[in-house]
Design brief:
Length: about 375
């Protein structure tokens, strides 16, 4: 790729009409009615509210799973999953070096030791061969995240975990509604997690959920969460705003996928230094929280982000690599070159920018930069 020139990314005389990025979270009549009903019925004050029961039933249907437990955040969902998997002090948990850093910290919180593996070549999830090479008698679980709209090789990871006697925790916090070869992401792991944080495609400000098809795991979660009231609850009001969003999730995911592909094609036509890393593999129905764009170097990436900020585009850095964490904190049995490269070269576009009109894609790509 060509190096970025010293001049600003946009030519001095280039002019564009202001690009409107839809606000998030949405304010819709359906959400307002759901909240009003929750308040007027006094359901908001119930421990076992109807709003929560409705949300659980909807999630069970969407993810084709018999057990759903709501909780206060996606990070709490990871921690609860690790505890249900039996992770205690001295145990090892395999995780990608390029992942949400909270997953690394949850392992440490329980006294476990993260085992870092590299990113797969074809997606942003853990490389299956790296995971296999990281095996030891102390490994108890594997965390596998679907990131930036890409599905990790979750079926192969499940097979490997079953062979090794490990628990697979499928982190679906970024990918609600994704489908992999006809099955919902979140239905492959022994446990799976969701996040309903303020910026997420399904948002209640905070919140999360844990999913499982395993009756034993469900019983372990109940022992952790029911004391006898819920230890990490999601409120009825939070549940009420999520139900209407679930009804729109599929159409929103379809729109985001379409615009992501249009951005990819437009940047290619512009011979941009940015490569749009949209998920285009057969058998994958993507769900985007962030769309990854890869630059030729970290300096180009940082300047693209700075220019995007001038135009109020929701573009930022991706995850940093945990590869430089000390050997005291983690075990690193394989090279982590791909994780380091991605951390240095990736920037990410927020999912609300994928809800623009198709007619605005050209302008968006011009603002992203075409040096």
């Amino acid at each position: 790729m060509a190096a970025l020139a010293a001049a600003p990314i946009l030519p001095k005389h280039a002019t564009f009409m202001p690009l409107t990025i839809p606000p998030w979270p949405r304010q819709t009549p359906e959400i307002s009615r759901a909240v009003s009903q929750c308040i007027e019925s006094a359901d908001w004050g119930s421990y076992q509210s109807q709003a929560k029961k409705t949300l659980i039933a909807a999630l069970e249907s969407l993810f084709e799973t018999p057990h759903v437990r709501l909780c206060c955040s996606g990070t709490a969902a990871i921690e609860i999953s690790l505890r249900a998997a039996g992770v205690t002090a001295g145990d090892e948990v395999i995780v990608s070096a390029f992942d949400y850093p909270g997953n690394f910290r949850c392992i440490e919180l329980l006294g476990g030791k993260p085992v870092l593996v590299d990113v797969a070549r074809e997606n942003f999830g853990p490389d299956v061969d790296s995971v296999a090479a990281a095996a030891s008698t102390r490994v108890r679980a594997v965390i596998a995240s679907h990131l930036y709209g890409h599905a990790c090789d979750i079926a192969s990871l499940r097979d490997l975990c079953d062979q090794q006697g490990w628990v697979l925790i499928e982190d679906t916090c970024q990918a609600p509604g994704m489908r992999v070869n006809g099955k919902p992401a979140g239905s492959f792991g022994h446990l799976a997690t969701l996040s309903f944080g303020g910026s997420k495609p399904l948002s209640s400000g905070n919140g999360g959920a844990i999913l499982t098809r395993d009756d034993r795991m469900a019983a372990r979660m109940a022992a952790l969460l029911d004391r006898p009231s819920e230890a990490f609850p999601l409120s009825a009001l939070q549940a009420s705003v999520l139900v209407p969003q679930l009804a729109e999730l599929q159409s929103d995911n379809t729109q985001r996928d379409h615009i992501a592909r249009q951005i990819q094609q437009q940047l290619q036509r512009q011979n941009s230094t940015l490569k749009c890393m949209a998920e285009t593999r057969d058998g994958i129905d993507p769900a985007y929280y962030k769309l990854a764009l890869r630059a030729a170097s970290s300096s180009i990436r940082d300047r693209v982000i700075a220019t995007a900020a001038e135009h109020h585009l929701p573009l930022g850095h991706g995850f940093r690599s945990m590869a430089r964490s000390s050997e005291r904190r983690c075990r690193k049995p394989v090279p982590l070159d791909r994780s380091e490269a991605l951390a240095n070269e990736i920037c990410v576009l927020d999912h609300r920018a994928l809800l623009i009109d198709e007619a605005d894609v050209f302008e968006l790509c011009q603002l992203l930069g075409n040096p």
